[in-house]
Task: inverse folding
């Protein structure tokens, strides 16, 4: 076995990635990487910024497996060390390094909702709140978009502030994967 600490993926309790990371840092004094994504999501009263785990239910921790695996498993929120069969799977250093390069402040990736022509959006503010529309023009200089919507049985183009619409996406990484 190696005498150098390696990166491992840990399965955590649902929606407890940040709490588990803190526990691993404070109780086990480990180097932990819990990549997060921050994006806007449609809410009942408009839109708000949400921060979620990039990999829901998982965090990365660097430790010496033979000496510290019991301590890691005993930390609050850890379900198991991910592996195949009885052996834990080592996460290559390059993968963690690349993930860290893509995030800000060491853990958070901010995903801006870019609005493109032809895209369906939800109107989340203003008099048309709750309606779905199609973007016909984006006017970034004026921070506005023109949307096509059906009003009184006729299709009309209406200009609204860019912050009043939100693309119809549940999770930004799903959108990125579909574009690839």
Result:
């Amino acid at each position: 076995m190696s005498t150098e600490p390696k990166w491992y993926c840990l399965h955590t309790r649902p929606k407890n990635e940040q709490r588990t990371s803190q526990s691993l840092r404070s109780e086990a004094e480990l180097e932990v990487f819990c990549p997060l994504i921050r994006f806007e999501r449609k809410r009942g009263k408009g839109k708000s910024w949400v921060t979620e785990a990039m990999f829901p239910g998982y965090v990365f921790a660097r430790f010496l497996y033979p000496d510290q695996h019991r301590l890691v498993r005993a930390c609050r929120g850890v379900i198991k060390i991910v592996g195949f069969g009885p052996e834990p799977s080592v996460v290559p250093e390059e993968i963690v390094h690349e993930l860290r390069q893509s995030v800000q402040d060491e853990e958070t990736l901010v995903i801006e909702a870019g609005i493109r022509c032809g895209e369906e959006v939800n109107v989340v503010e203003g008099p048309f709140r709750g309606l779905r529309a199609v973007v016909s023009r984006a006017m970034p200089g004026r921070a506005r978009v023109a949307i096509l919507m059906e009003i009184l049985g006729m299709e009309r183009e209406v200009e609204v502030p860019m912050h009043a619409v939100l693309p119809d996406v549940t999770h930004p990484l799903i959108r990125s994967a579909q574009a690839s």
